[in-house]
From TrEMBL:
Assigned EC number: 2.4.2.8
Organism: Abeliophyllum distichum
Domain of life: Eukaryota
Cofactor(s) named in the record: Mg(2+)
Official protein name in the record: Hypoxanthine phosphoribosyltransferase
Family of the protein in this entry: Belongs to the purine/pyrimidine phosphoribosyltransferase family.
One of the protein's GO biological processes: purine ribonucleoside salvage
UniProt cross-references to CDD domains, sorted A to Z: PRTases_typeI
Catalytic activity: IMP + diphosphate = hypoxanthine + 5-phospho-alpha-D-ribose 1-diphosphate
One GO MF term: glycosyltransferase activity
Length: 187
């Protein structure tokens, strides 16, 4: 059955996402061009894979790109508040500027845990670039490191969203837009 049939509404279209990703890339380029070491982009797998891929292709600086995995959701829609790191960095971030690239910040648990983890590896600054932020659901305050900055694509209403990398039970990541599923799919 066609995936589109599962989607109740689209929140951001492919064009809107692409436009915003270009804007974020320009902000990052402006902030990091004067630095003498280009940042390491670290995507939080799996949700950030499309955002990371689109973002880094717009950054004309000698950056490195890596992934890290933090699991807190299992197959459900509510964070269990205690993320594990089953897949760690390959790139050495000691003394580097790191930009953590996330699909969405929800409770803040995942980022807080990842920031501590990357800080312990000696990164000289840690920034966060998230496509979506759901401030209504924040439980954990996370602190950026050094001169790290916070880049955010869109503020997300309090829905469980899918698409453009984000899943429900590992499906829907391949939708090119971001939307909400029909209620019967979640139940
Ligand atoms: P946090 O630890 O901030 O609660 O959760 C962050 C992670 O939970 C995100 O990286 C994302 O993978 C997942 N998440 C949070 N909200 C949503 C949502 O609305 N849709 C999907 N698909 N994943 C979400
Ligand atoms: Mg994520």
């Amino acid at each position: 059955m066609d995936l589109e049939y599962h989607v109740e509404k689209i929140l951001w279209t492919e064009q809107q996402i692409s436009h915003r990703v270009s804007e974020l890339a320009s902000e990052i380029i402006q902030d990091f061009t004067p630095q003498n070491n280009a940042p390491a982009f670290v995507g939080v797998a799996t949700g950030a894979f499309l955002f990371l891929a689109d973002l880094v292709r717009k950054i004309q600086l000698p950056i490195s790109v890596d992934f890290i995995r933090a699991d807190s959701y299992g197959l459900g829609t509510v964070s269990n508040g205690n993320p594990r790191i089953p897949f760690d960095l390959k790139v050495d971030v000691q003394g580097k500027h790191v930009i953590l690239v996330e699909d969405i910040v929800d409770t803040g648990n995942t980022l807080s845990c990842l920031i501590d983890h990357i800080k312990s590896k000696g990164a000289s600054s840690i920034s966060v670039c998230t496509l979506l932020d759901k401030p209504a659901r924040r439980k954990v305050h996370f602190e950026l490191v050094g001169k790290g900055k916070y880049y955010c694509g869109f503020e997300c209403p309090d829905y469980f969203v899918v698409g453009y990398g984000m899943d429900f039970a590992e499906l829907y990541r391949n939708l090119p837009y971001i939307g909400v599923l029909k209620p019967e799919i979640y139940s």
